[in-house]
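Now for one record.
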Amino acid sequence: MRIFISTGEVSGDIQGALLANKIKELSPETIIDGFGGVEMQKANVNILSDMSTLSSVGILEGINPVFASKKISSFKLLKQYLKNNKIDLMILVDNQGANLILAKYCTKNNIKYIYYFPPHVGIWGVHNAKRLTSAKKVITPFMFDYEVYKKYNCDVMFSGHPFVDLDYNSNPPELKVEKREYTVGVLFGSRYQEIKTLSKTFIMTMKILNDTLSSNVRFIIPIAYPEYKKLILSILDEHKEELKNVLYTLLEVEDKDYIYKYSDVLMLSSGTATLLAACYGKPMVICYKISKLTFFIAKMFTKIKFIGMPNILLDKEVVPELLQEDCNPTTISNHIIKFLLEKEYYNKISNTLLEVRTLLGEKNVLDRVAKEILK
């Protein structure tokens, strides 16, 4: 059997790799090709093209000639690949910007496809449920999406989220940076857009926190993807004056997920990282900035109360969400200091966040998903 897995974005690359490994475990003879990045490569997937760093959020943000050219080249490669190889199944993972186009292509060309980690129709973009009625199966990790896909007559399965199967009690290696009373994780993001938009704000926040806490704090900055290292180093170098007396270290890609163990509190953009932080019970400040046009249109056409997955799942603002002008160093610092200095408040938020794990379904998620796909 031959399967093609199409991922994009850093989180999609990770989930695609986990799935590929499980499929290979259950069916070693299966050939898996795909769009993917470093994690899919580690899973021994034959990579056609890597679109992990080409995603963006918003209207103006999506207008990027370089990214558009790379995506077009990837689609051309895929069309040629499909002419030369008969696949039994296309698996689309996350990355709705590209994968909804592929879903339409599959339908038109009679290629069976499954959408794993499909668009969040339970939060926004309900119309996307109608677009996936042709899918052989829609496999969603969230119950709020399952209910909408079911309503629109999609063949949908609630799988639960792979995060429910992580070992949250394992101990990471010793962090090679001088110890301080407080440790703050600084996640610039997993998209170029997020890194460029949020990095200066986060760096200025680091300076304020360092000054306020009398240098009794250290910062950890994970690199979400190898291609981002050069950009992050250049940004840090540009702000070396502000960071002169600030203690910080980088976590390389292979160690990046230790950030949730090492940190007391995190500042980060919305996305998969917020869900993982919640599963570790780590208080956080969720930050996001997009163009004014995108923000205005989003306010007009969506009715979502929250953007952070922990708040969405718990249906209340457990951790602060700072958008647009509210996303500034002073406000971020105030929230983080409150978490660090008020232990009772910290513990209350931490325990509430841990409730997220109970909303992610039953264990053995990947086993269920892979068996459904192979069936």
Notes: The longest strand covers residues 182-187.
